Fold this protein.
Amino acid sequence: MQLLVNVDHIATLRNARGEGYPDPVEAASVCEESGATGIVFHLRKDRRHIRDEDVYRLKKSVKGTLDFEMAASDEMIEICKEVKPHLCTLVPEGREELTTEGGLNMKLVYDDFKDRVFPAFKDTGIKISLFLDPNPEDIKLAHELGSDAIELHTGTFANAVDSDAQKNELNRLTDAAEMIHSLGMTVNAGHGLNLKNLPILIENVPYLEDVSIGHALVSKAVFWGLERTVKEYLKIMNVES
Ligand code: PXP
């Protein structure tokens, strides 16, 4: 299992004062030096955290896996093809949302992804991951499109208010992971993961490859520093740093 650190909120903090610091590219280097396998960033349409120049600087600087999270707009597809990350994670994006609120509705986007999005990435060497809720129907359609990976949305699990709700969502995630794996796609996961819920996820959900973690990790780093925080995550993932 691999830890991909999302550095969006380093940029959020930078943008709060319009200074050049803290720098998401410097944060990415510290995370990699501390043992993270790679870095995720989400370039949003409104550029509220990561900006275009960050994307090109991250591409130059990141040594491990670079995961470009984005909405499937023509503008983002162009930038992504120019940057050539290892992985492109496609997410729904609502202008008013504070963060990504759920997985893609595959029924809704299927025709557009089939006719416009997947052909645009053909022969680019960029792997495609679709951010999905643990729904068999969505996973089936993602497989029909030829997606390389699915990132399972763990937000509902992370926000579960009691142990029954958590168990129920863990069962859905487990079934989804089994299905994704059996269809030959890679199982990734992310959203709302932290030091408390990540061990529960790992214990229950099989075949996890990449976990993408941002807000909780960056928040903890305010107190512990990025190096110690990344190492604590790796420790509970049983990954040597
Ligand atoms: N994965 C996806 C697809 C996301 O949209 C986000 C949030 O940007 C994350 C993972 C990371 O979520 P969090 O910041 O809650 O760790």
Notes: The pocket of pyridoxine-5'-phosphate is lined by residues 6, 8, 42, 69, 89, 91, 99-100, 131, 151, 190-193, 212-216 (CB under 6 Å).
